[in-house]
Amino acid sequence: MSSFGNVLDVTKPDFDVDAYVVKLLREKSLDGLVKEEEEMVSAVRRLDSDVHQIVYENYNKFLTATNTVRKIQDEFTQLDSEMKSLSQSMSSISSLIGSLDGVLGEKRDDILQLGSSYKVVNSLKHIFDLPHVLQSEFDDRNYGEVLRMFKLAEESLDQYKDVPTVQSVLQKSKKIYDMTENQLMDQLRNPASGAELVSEAVDLLLTIGRDEDEVQKVLLKCSEQSLREDLKELSTNHSDVLDLVDKASESFIPNLTLIATTHDRLFEEKRAELLTVLRTEMNSLHALVSKVFLSSSDAKDCSIVVRALDRYFRKISTCRHVIPGFDFLPLTIELINAVSKHEIDLSLTRIKEELRNALNEVRKSLINEEKDLSALANKIEQVFVHQVKTALANLLLFTASDVTFANLPPDEFRQSFALNAHERLLVQAFHKFAELGDEYEAGAGEIRFIDPRVLLVFAVALQHLSNKSAVYLLNLCREQFSLSPEEGLTDIAVVTSEVKTRAQKLVRCYAEKTGLSMGETLIKGCTMLVQPSATPSSVRASVRRLGEDMAACDSELASLLGGDTKPKDTRVNRRPITTALDAARDSLWCERIDFHLQIHFNRASIITAVVKVVLKIFIESIRLQTYSKFGVEQVQVDCYYLQRCLAALVSDEVVVNSMVDQALSSALKRCQDPVLVHPSRLAQLCEQPPANRPSSQASSLGY
């Protein structure tokens, strides 16, 4: 079977063409045979190309080898001629030596003595030139070369120190040597000397045998002075905290590490003294850096502060590895935590300042007759939201992936920082916002006489914030800083409740101030009216003005809070008061008015609170006067007008009906002979325009 396979294998020597063709005709179709032929033709062409390529390469190699052989042959020919020339030269030299030996043989000893004398003279020349050479090296500050050359010559010169000339050379050289030693000590003591010069001086002084303890103490003192000079320069020459850290990284810290390395190399057994000096100076640097970090007053510089803090942390970490036993990392971590708290406080301060600015702009807008109260409320809310989000974004820089100290164990930085971001910044921001509301409610100082609408806009902004934005900001903070409620966070409901409480106080303060302002205007108009000498012919102007002011107030509330501004239809389905007895009886059964009900943030609830205050003032002013017959009639007309105007605005017209009845009842009780206008005439009188009466009939005694 194996032999049959060899017959059909084209690569074997015993390949049988006929058998292979028969096999192909039996197994393959016409298309298969055509394809087989194409493949064989392609293979033959490929093999033919490979053979040509191999022949070409071999031919090139043959040509190269031929050239190489020819070149070697030429070189050997040249070498042969050079060897012949060398042989002739050697023969000539040998003959010359033989001739010289015959001539100089008798004076050999003299020649040897002359050579020895030359060496001695040459050595003496160098000895006499030694002071000049040493001085030249000293002038060039090659102190190491001065010391080396003197030490080499000193032993030889000491043997001939009795010779005056040698003694003079030795004295001059010793003087230069002493100058060099003193210069090295001065270089060691000079704080302005660089670390490399100091290291060189220490090495040379120890090499010449200077007292080790003395050199070590001078080195420490010099190092201390050098570090203090660096600190002095840093404290007076920096533009910001990043510049300070960069300069400290370029001067103080490298100087400190080089001093430590040099000292450890030369005085390894005295590390304790070195560490004491280094810790003292490093404490000074840390105090300076901490002071500059904590003196930052602009929250916008947070990115610069984080970069500087990260560089400082990396440098201190490097020092810990370079200088064994020198670990300032705990203090640096404390500084990181302190700086992060400081930046949180700055952000909180900025939020409060921006809120004050926004409220001042709202006040100015209302002074300039700005009508869009809704836009003003949204502006206050958006300022708060924007400032809080900006502050959170700045604080996230402390936990960025490229910040080295962000990778500290969570219990050393990240955990407390995240908690401070939530509690110290966000929760306190809401608290400060609420406190600002308390300030506006109290109305002290420059905000004592503000437009009551500022309180309304402020209250609406707080209400909107508590309904939606507060929850959004709190959840955003927890998500960004990976916080969970189990970590002792202030509950969201507590925050929103505080904000809602302040909103409720502000809207109540708005209702009271607005009602007080309208009530005072009403009372002034009533007390300055003329004494009626006949049955009233219309509603008093101040009462009509009150109705107009109430309608304007209602329109503003509707634009701010939404709701129907069209007055609702009211029908007075109650028995009218016609006598003083009716008034006394109705006063016993009138509705009790609660002035401390919660005010809801809708048009009807707020306008109801304002109406309560106005009508209460109206009632109390009536109770302070006595009335004539016509005065009671005028009060009746005014009350009917107020009831008809105000009942359509409030959420519960019973409040208006009850308080109007109280006003009329109070007037009836303060008249000796009260007679009321017939109910059929009241509507007609309310439609009449106010009459202009002569001021000569004015009276301040009431009716």
UniProtKB/TrEMBL annotation:
A GO biological process of this protein is: lipid transport
Q: Do the record's keywords include DNA-binding?
A: no
Coiled-coil spans are 348-379
Subcellular location(s): the record lists:
Golgi apparatus, trans-Golgi network
Fetch the InterPro entries from UniProt: Vps51 (IPR014812)
Q: Which UniProt keywords apply?
A: Coiled coil, Golgi apparatus, Lipid transport, Protein transport, Transport
Q: Does the keyword Cytoplasm apply?
A: no
What Gene Ontology cellular component terms go with this record? Answer: cytosol; EARP complex; GARP complex; membrane
Broad class of the protein's primary localization: Golgi
Job of this protein: Acts as component of the GARP complex that is involved in retrograde transport from early and late endosomes to the trans-Golgi network (TGN).
What family classification does the UniProt entry report for this protein? Answer: Belongs to the VPS51 family.
Q: What do we know about how this protein assembles, alone or with others?
A: Component of the Golgi-associated retrograde protein (GARP) complex.
Descriptive protein name: Vacuolar protein sorting-associated protein 51 homolog
